[in-house]
Design brief:
- It is a single chain.
- By secondary structure, the chain is α+β, with helices and mostly antiparallel strands.
- It has two domains: 2-83, no CATH class; 94-185.
- It contains four helices and 13 strands.
């Protein structure tokens, strides 16, 4: 999805490349930035946050990308802004200290991964508090955590944990399982 914004005081890390949307997205994701900003057909910038910007009509971004003329790459004083998909892994301090058994709902299994977890991410640094925080930030009621087997996403890496966010409450469609997977209510 494309969002076009007027360039007032966007906080960004400048980086110029032969611009097209995909290359800019990849560059900004690699820099752990949430947004890829394309300007005047050739400039790619990356931003963690967007401040002092105002939404403009898509038609205000008239510059085609140099690398792909079919894509919108801003205009003078305007950026075409794309979300990179990068999820910042927050530093947990107070929240991780208060996390406890009251948040644990139980361990469940489902064969319908798409319904259970329409949003998920995988990281070696995942903790229950991080999963809960990211799901809550994205307005999901439940956070599901799985290690080393298929629940929301297949992973075979022993060091990788997947967090899936779900709007679904506990119901008869879930079957209780062993301790390898759990679903936690916020």
């Amino acid at each position: 999805m494309t969002h076009e914004w007027r360039d007032d005081f966007v906080t960004h890390v400048p980086h110029t490349i032969v611009a097209n949307v995909q290359k800019c997205l990849e560059e900004c994701w690699a820099r752990r930035q949430r947004f890829a900003l394309l300007k005047e057909g050739q400039t790619c910038c990356c931003a963690v946050t967007l401040r002092a910007v105002s939404v403009k009509e898509n038609s205000a971004c008239t510059s085609p990308c140099l690398g792909d003329k079919k894509q919108a790459c801003g205009a003078p004083a305007h950026f075409s802004i794309y979300y990179t998909g990068y999820i910042e892994e927050p530093q947990f301090t107070k929240f991780s200290l208060v996390f406890g058994k009251k948040h644990f709902v139980g361990c469940y299994y489902t064969s319908d991964e798409n319904t259970l977890c329409p949003f998920s991410f995988t990281t070696q640094r995942l903790r229950a508090a991080m999963c809960m925080d990211v799901c809550e930030e994205n307005a999901y009621l439940y956070a599901a955590i799985t290690v080393c087997f298929k629940l929301c996403q297949t992973t075979r890496d022993q060091n990788t944990t997947t967090c899936g966010c779900t709007p679904i409450s506990m119901s008869a469609t879930f079957t209780y399982c062993d301790t390898m997977s759990s679903q936690r209510k916020m």
